[in-house]
Amino acid sequence: MSLLYALDLIGTAAFAASGAWAGIRRDMDLFGVMVLGLVTAIGGGTLRDLLLGDTPPFCLQDEIYLYIAIGVSLATFFLHRRMDLLRHPLLYFDAVGLGTFVVIGTEKALQFETGALSSVLLGVMTATAGGMIRDMLANQVPLILRKEVYASACLAGGVLLVALHHIAAPRPVALLCSAGLVILVRLLAIRFDWALPKAGSR
Amino acid sequence: MSLLYALDLIGTAAFAASGAWAGIRRDMDLFGVMVLGLVTAIGGGTLRDLLLGDTPPFCLQDEIYLYIAIGVSLATFFLHRRMDLLRHPLLYFDAVGLGTFVVIGTEKALQFETGALSSVLLGVMTATAGGMIRDMLANQVPLILRKEVYASACLAGGVLLVALHHIAAPRPVALLCSAGLVILVRLLAIRFDWALPKAGSR
Amino acid sequence: MSLLYALDLIGTAAFAASGAWAGIRRDMDLFGVMVLGLVTAIGGGTLRDLLLGDTPPFCLQDEIYLYIAIGVSLATFFLHRRMDLLRHPLLYFDAVGLGTFVVIGTEKALQFETGALSSVLLGVMTATAGGMIRDMLANQVPLILRKEVYASACLAGGVLLVALHHIAAPRPVALLCSAGLVILVRLLAIRFDWALPKAGSR
Question: Which PANTHER family match (chains A, B, C) (predicted)?
Answer without folding.
Answer: INNER MEMBRANE PROTEIN, UPF0126 INNER MEMBRANE PROTEIN YADS-RELATED
